[in-house]
User: Fold these one by one.
Assistant:
Number 1:
Amino acid sequence: MISYCTNVHPAEDVDGIVAQLERYALPVRERLGADRLGVGLWLSAPVARGLAEDAGARKRFRAELDARGLSVYTLNAFPYGGFHDDVVKHAVYRPEWTHPDRVAYTIDCVNVLSGLLAEDASYGSISTLPLAWREPWTDQDDRRATEAFGQVVRAIGDRPIKLAVEPEPGCVLDTVADALGWLSGRVDPEHVGLCLDTCHLAVSFADPAETLKAIAESDVDIVKVQASAALHVEDPAEARDALAAFAEPRYLHQVREFSGGVVRKADDLPEAWTDLPGEGPWRVHFHMPLHQDPAAPLSTTTDVLRTVAAGLPGEPHIEVETYTWSVLPDAGDLVGGIAAELEWAQANLVKEGVSA
């Protein structure tokens, strides 16, 4: 099942979430002509706590989803709240996995997902942040985070719920290799695995086929794939004016340059012009619509996504996660855009014989 992630919608209370689903998810499903549509829910911490503590509220929310033909297989528990504030930037990485609020929020999400999980689901997945922004981070933080994951696993118990850790540029677990190194031998592989965000993977300039091989050789499973594409810039100097439209103030847009056989780093797009030499191609952490190619000289990394999809072992959850519609230049109609992305995903990512 392919889902689309509802972190594209700003609602942070149950009534608002239902209204957003009515306004967007229902017409997307109808436009696709589908009996059911997968939604990867994002629930802010207060919403998750309220639903976790109130079985009746969960039942009513489940009824609202069913009434609209919406199925839930996965939650996105990376942002804790305020994901559509005027400025988000580094705040999206708080609270860290060393903080009890992160543990409590994740356990709330486990309890909510247990009550919403689609009847045909073999498991439910919850994607989460890669521990924290990279600094400050200490050995003591490592130990605290390890214990925090243990707490969540104990709370999961025998329920078919899995956490999916999502490496992201600039974080403690910056790359897939970092995530494999940290998770392997440290967490229960039955309940904790990898969320492979293909925008983040592309930004890191890691080879997607080699990455899949490394994952297959580890004891860490791919629990969830966030189907996403980064901006690719072959010649930064040529693309400076075109990139200016993407240097917006809400989200962090990490940039990586591959030059001289080395991946060079900048923490945000405005900083890239001074922090990077501009001697090789850039990739920018800006989630781009899967079905659209930006005007030259910009392009996207959907080739990385296609390579990952073709080589995926098993059938992990796939979630289209273009949360940037509100800050895209010339974004256009959101219902039409989400529907077009899902059509593209069905045509390009789903293996033969597997229904979206």
Number 2:
Amino acid sequence: MNHSLYDFLQIIDNLVWGPPLLLLLVGTGIYFTLRLGALQFSKLPLALSYVFKKEEGVTGKGDVSSFAALCTALSATIGTGNIVGVATALKLGGPGALFWMWMAALFGMATKYAECLLAVKYREKDAQGNMLGGPMLYLEKGAGKKWLARLFAFFTIGVACFGIGTFPQVNAIVDASHIAFNIPHEITAIVLTVLVAAVTIGGIKSIARLASKIIPTMTVVYVTACVGILVNNAGAIPSAISLIVESAFTGQAATGGFAGASIMIAIQAGVARGVFSNESGLGSAPMAAASAQTNSCVRQGLISMVGTFLDTVVICSMTGLALVLTGVWSMNIEGARMTTEAFSLGLNEGFGPMIVAIGLMFFAFTTILGWNYYGERCVVYLFGQRAVLIYKLVFVSLILSGAFIKLDMIWLIADIVNGLMAVPNLIGLILLRHVVAEETRVYFDALKNAVSSSSDSKAAKA
């Protein structure tokens, strides 16, 4: 590894993910939580019901169903962040990092609601008749900040090509296939490149169709395996949770020179990896939400915030608890190998690693597809439809090269471009905060009146 380049990137990463961005990310989530009356908690049952209930009388424009749009967003979020990212966070910040992932996710649900609401409200059709929406549209049309919209689109293409969309996912897939099945890295990289090229030709409908099948199935399989580890170590769960909470505020279990530094490392690792995993505030999920067939931006916002709940509060928690319960977080291993070792100890030496390998391969593969779509939408916004083919060729070539980059460098590059992408989006959310609040108020007032009218009608008939 080129240590001078690595050290330079480390300095940039510390600047990008310093206190200002952490405060902006968490602060935006706290603001919307308070402004919307803790909507992510009070309306979660309603949001969950919307996920599985088809909207009646849909006349709104859209490319795919609301469920398919959610699965597309989940395909981009449920990936290495849930399996490798959690391991990396605990390696850097100790068990306390998991607590800060939880905090970032719980407040991040309100952020995800707001950004996906705005994406549907300000979406429009591109030259090919497909929906185009996301932060670049609500920054330009809603906030009147076209320069910020262009900046966001530029950074998003960077994340798609050099961040979440390629290198971490490819590295995880080739590593997992080698660990579990002894397949050479070169073979996996070639096969993966061919598969990505084949699927992305079909566009959003092809990606959504595949994601709708893979994501629910693999989520159930992975969570079931994690529950098995929890059951096998049930007696140690209270002490594990106690260690996670205590480490978040004492820094005793985290690496670092002194307690204050350790706590900061735990917060930074937890929030950064949490954002990498659930992407709340990053501005990616709104691009998938904008493709949904729906009449209501609020309804889609509620459905979209379920993604953060499933991604971090459920799946990342399962992984984190497995790492703490089995004690592998403190071993001298990292990345996919750490999670693989936890499943090997928590389940058995044969079945456990296979679950991690298969989960990583499928989750990371769909993440690549989801981010290919996000990058494409931003290419269309900046350069028009004519540039899409060039973008796809570059993207596919980067998939092939991602197998041969060192893990530490991969996570540094991903963290930097993720942080840069989040900044213009969060500024847009703050500028449009009153629009989010008003749309929410109007929707729930109408819903309340509809329920009241229905009750009055039933009472009259009785």
